[in-house]
Amino acid sequence: MHSRPAMMESLEAADVPHRSGFRIGGVCVGIVGLQSDDVALIPSLEPFRDDTGVPDIDIRVEWKAELGLSRARQLFDSGCTWQLYEDPAGFQFDFHVAAFGDQPYKRLFIDRQFCRATLQMNEESFASGSRTLSPWEYPLDELLIMHRLTQEKAIELHGCGIVRAGGVGNLFVGHSGAGKSTTTRLWTELENVEVLSDDRIIVRQDLSVSPSGLRMYGTPWHGEAHYASSDSAPLTRIFILEHGFGNVLTRLSPSLAVGELFARSFVPFHRHEYVESALSFLQELAAKVPVYRYAFEPDSRAVEAILHLHD
What we know:
about 300 residues, alpha+beta, 2 domains, eight-stranded mixed sheet
């Protein structure tokens, strides 16, 4: 059995003495709870800590004697760690660990705008006294941000972000195995660059940036090279990585670029409006930023080809 919390209950109440928060890709998450452990950030989130910003997402942590299996209509099943259900006030995410049995060890209720949420922790799952799993264990953090981005002009892409001296930001996107970690290594060996992430980058509209009006952000969700920065930079160019010969750069038309970028994006597919929002933003992005297909060889010449590129 479980009870659905009142989504609009004030998160400023006096009975939630502990607070913390984090900011990823321009999205600020505020957390309140009765215990300090409830709001403690995991190590990967510490560089993204933000206790002072105005939250885009407010989350209250509470403990329940048990959560039970959900009877709500299922919208998506990840196949192992989490399921998504429709809730009268929004959505419900259930998270599982095999060692805890069939019951979810935590459950998130969140409104349809991804602004206010309650995270319920299952006391029965931790009855042995061991609380080695944090409420903020992955993939909850990424799911929160990914879904919130559907409400804004922003998107998460499978890519590595390289920032050169002077703030020139190049984004290299690619499927797993396309060469993101290799690209990161090549650039760090040849130039004094900042790596925002070697696996997942958030791009969002930022009208203060010229000329593109777009900014790319690092995320905690790194790849093999373990780069995960909370910094950001104006987005100058995008390269679609693929293995090839001769380091061939091919400028893509905006329509082709949208398709290539969408195939390498993290978009919640369970609602058509989220897909439409992502495609609309990618169309704006491809119209403002040069996008190239890059068939590259894994040596220093791959970097030099871009250094000598003129749009």
